[in-house]
Amino acid sequence: MKIRSLVTVAGLALAVALAGCTGGSLRMFSSEYGSMRDAGYRLPSIPISKVPRQYHRQIVRYDTKEKPGTIIVDTSEKHLYFVMPEGKAMRYGIGVGREGFEWSGVARIAAKREWPVWTPPPAMIKRQPELAKYAKGMPPGLNNALGARALYLHNRSGDTGYRLHGTPEWASIGRAMSSGCIRLINQDIIDLYDRAEVGAKVIVK
Questions:
Q1: Percent of the chain, pLDDT > 70?
Q2: Residue from 78, 94, 91, 85 nearest 24 by CA
């Protein structure tokens, strides 16, 4: 019985160790979703207990050959990774494009904007005529579709039309609901914005 117990304990220890090497959380930031003031706006607190823990901001172990500062978007797992030194990454929960609006590829951050103006593209206005009132731009604010921050993605052909951006719709995190852009909780996009540099590589897969 003692031998079996030792084997069981050893097995559990090994499982925990392996979990740590394959993405186990090293630090959670579940307390970072409270109300905050930013550029004259008061962001409301997020009922983070209603968001699955896997989508809370956290530092995880992450094995990649990409250099620190690279952003890797895993659309199937609904996670965005900001690569850090020493085999770590800051991981954020995301919302992704709904069926028919998915995309993948490599881009660069061409620009960063705080409290950006959102201008729906003509194709979106055609699908949703009620957005025509924003054809010249939706002013910044708590209800703006791009949220508190936006990172604009370009590739060799120019502007992809896709953004990494905030959203007031926290319940959409972990779901496929957007028109292709990658959305984060506003508190998370502010954190990512402060880390990411213009020119950084973005891989969407």
A1: 87
A2: 91
